[in-house]
């Protein structure tokens, strides 16, 4: 039995010393393997008498189990250790970008429209939409521009072919038809902005046949011109991220507003550099006014009960002023180098809380 105890102790020591899975496997072969020390003792049982074999066999089996258990425990521990090491070695930093650099860019027009929407949404405006292909009623007639009105000539309209009844569809010349669609479909109070494409048959340094506008419309029972100016003042200071941007109304004429005003913002041109904000200069950014009673009537609203304001601004112009883009036509050149330079990173979505510009 001393012999058994010695072999047991040696076997256990061998297992305890094994510091790797390979060493542990070697320990298993050396003890429980075919030619192992414990197995060799097993073979010696054959030479014993039945009585001896009974007691010796039981103790030997106990040793065998003990060694097998020790090996299993050691193996589990070594497996866990190997896995831990592997996890550390193969660690993936999921916060790293998949590709070193995002290639695509958001076009300044999309970015500026998103910025405008973020600002007006904060003021409680909803986004409304209308079709690019309009009819005469929504683009002109309902906006108090009757068939023989000279304003129709001013708009350089793209017309589609004549239909059987003599009418023609057209590409909308401004976003104002969305005013009509909104008032026809919804009861006041109304507070919407409508960003989108507009078209005029005009092309030179400062005009492209397709451009973008953002329309604003507020209709309720008490909204007046002071609210219009306050809304625009709030908008321009937030948009240009300047503490104070003077806003000036210049008397003007639009058939669909009365009174009408052109909107100018303050700027300085010191040293040839254009800066939005306090200064001696003025820049026009859009048209505005109180919605004309005839427009309300055309939409089925009673001008004795309802009133409100509307404004329209050019998106490209706002983008040029804010981001110092000098040439309007480059917006539509699809030049990747231009887009790389003036474009925005896709995930930098403009928000008032996170910052409009980055
Ligand atoms: N629709 C006008 C334009 O395109 C702008 C405007 C909109 C003026 C709303 C007054 C009110 O020039």
Give an overview in words.
The protein has 2 domains: 2-89; 108-342, Bira Bifunctional Protein, Domain 2 (BirA Bifunctional Protein, domain 2, 2-Layer Sandwich), CATH 3.30.930. Helix content is 41%, strand content 21%. The chain has helices at 2-17, 21-31, 37-44, 50-89, 108-122, 136-139, 151-154, 177-185, 225-240, 293-298, 315-323, 336-342; strands at residues 126-127, 133-134, 159-162, 168-171, 190-199, 210-220, 247-254, 257-268, 275-276, 281-291, 307-314. The strands form 2 sheets. Strands 1, 5, 6, 7, 8, 9, 10 and 11 form an 8-stranded mixed sheet that branches. The chain has a 3-stranded antiparallel sheet with strand order 2-4-3. Helix 5 (108-122) crosses helix 11 (315-323). It is rod-shaped and about 130 Å long. The relative contact order is 0.11. Phenylalanine binds next to strand 10 and strand 11.
Question: What key phrases describe this protein's structure?
Answer:
3-stranded antiparallel β-sheet, alpha+beta, 358 residues, 8-stranded mixed β-sheet
């Amino acid at each position: 039995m001393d012999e058994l105890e010695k072999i047991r102790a040696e076997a256990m020591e061998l297992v305890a010393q094994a510091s790797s899975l390979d060493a542990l496997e070697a320990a298993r072969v050396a003890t429980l393997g075919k030619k192992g020390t414990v197995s060799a003792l097993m073979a010696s049982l054959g030479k014993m008498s039945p009585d001896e074999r009974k007691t010796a066999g039981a103790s030997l089996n106990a040793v065998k189990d003990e060694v097998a258990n020790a090996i299993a425990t050691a193996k589990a521990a070594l497996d866990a250790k190997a896995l831990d090491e592997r996890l550390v070695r193969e660690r993936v930093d999921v916060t790293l970008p998949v590709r070193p650099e995002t290639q695509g860019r958001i076009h300044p027009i999309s970015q500026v429209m998103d910025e405008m929407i973020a600002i007006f949404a904060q003021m409680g405006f909803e986004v409304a939409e209308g079709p690019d292909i309009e009819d005469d009623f929504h683009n002109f007639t309902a906006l108090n521009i009757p068939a023989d009105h000279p304003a129709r000539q001013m708009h350089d309209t793209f017309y589609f072919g004549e239909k059987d009844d003599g009418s023609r569809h057209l590409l909308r010349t401004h976003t104002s038809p969305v005013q009509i669609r909104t008032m026809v479909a919804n009861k006041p109070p109304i507070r919407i902005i409508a960003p989108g494409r507009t078209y005029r048959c005009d092309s030179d340094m400062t005009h492209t046949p397709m451009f973008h506008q953002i329309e604003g419309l507020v209709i309720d029972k008490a909204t007046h011109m002071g609210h219009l100016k306050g809304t625009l003042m709030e908008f321009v200071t937030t948009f240009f991220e300047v503490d104070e941007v003077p806003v000036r109304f210049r008397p003007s004429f639009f058939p669909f507003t009365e009174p009408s005003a052109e909107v100018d913002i303050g700027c300085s041109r010191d040293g040839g550099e254009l800066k939005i904000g306090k200064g001696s200069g003025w820049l026009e950014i859009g048209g505005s006014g109180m919605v004309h009673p005839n427009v309300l009537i055309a939409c089925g609203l009673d001008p004795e009960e309802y009133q409100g304001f509307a404004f329209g601004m050019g998106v490209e112009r706002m983008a040029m002023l804010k981001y110092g883009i000098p040439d309007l036509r480059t917006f539509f050149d699809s030049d990747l180098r231009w887009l790389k330079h003036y474009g925005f990173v896709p995930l930098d979505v403009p928000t008032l809380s996170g910052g409009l510009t980055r």
